[in-house]
């Protein structure tokens, strides 16, 4: 009789025996550390919020409600002369006079917005930045407008007064400019000035005038010295800028063409025809491109009834003296260089 193989139970490990073990309770020291950490986080958030709120409140009070801040007895009056810098001609004395800060005022009492408006009111100052430097110094930084032309203004029955016009069209009286600088500026004509809120409205077209003057001044100084009067009478309607000079009663520039090329044409005509104050040209129209009409004016005294204007079209080539056409040679089909001027 065969023996049946024995059935032995599977071996088991002690790890498989169920064990009911409760989690280890946190000690008193652990609970204390955990509580302290939570308290630090809450305190940090509260402190940051308080600092932010205090800073915002202080800045608001200084800027808009300086009188609500208690005056510190150990802070004296602000210095009468500010720490002043500018990119123009104004001085620290002008700034102190314009700001008109009371002698007994402290730095904390100053309203920077009000002081800034006083500096900007003249029109000569484009940007004014003011800062408080404790304990007693006011810092003033200015960016000024540069005059492009002069304009004579008669307001009502008052005597005519000279004003200046800047590139952005702002009209202002100006202060601190040297006489030699003022005498080089051309006069402005053909404009209508209107007041709004106590100030003149900006003159339209001054940006184009400034570009023309800059081209003439830096590329052809001898031509710029001839710019005595600049008229904007036809600027709005035709885009024309009229220049009056001792050698030509009217030189018309157009804003639709490059000023550099038109100045080259003007320079060419002056070299070819050699007009003088005693024998000036009557009119040069540079608004027609290469074809430039020129009107001559007979010398003063050549006729008993006064000077007579005669017009012709001159060719800038060798036949110019025969008076056929003013058509400039291919030299001016591209932008002329300074050598060609």
UniProtKB/TrEMBL annotation:
| InterPro entries in alphabetical order | POTRA_FtsQ_type
Swiss-Prot/TrEMBL GO biological process terms: cell division
The answer to whether the entry has keyword Transmembrane is: yes
Q: Where is the POTRA domain?
A: 91-145
Q: Which Pfam families match?
A: POTRA_1
The membrane spanning regions, by residue number, are 34-56
Keywords from the named record: Cell cycle, Cell division, Cell membrane, Membrane, Transmembrane, Transmembrane helix
Which lineage? unclassified sequences, metagenomes, ecological metagenomes
This chain belongs to the protein called: Cell division protein FtsQ
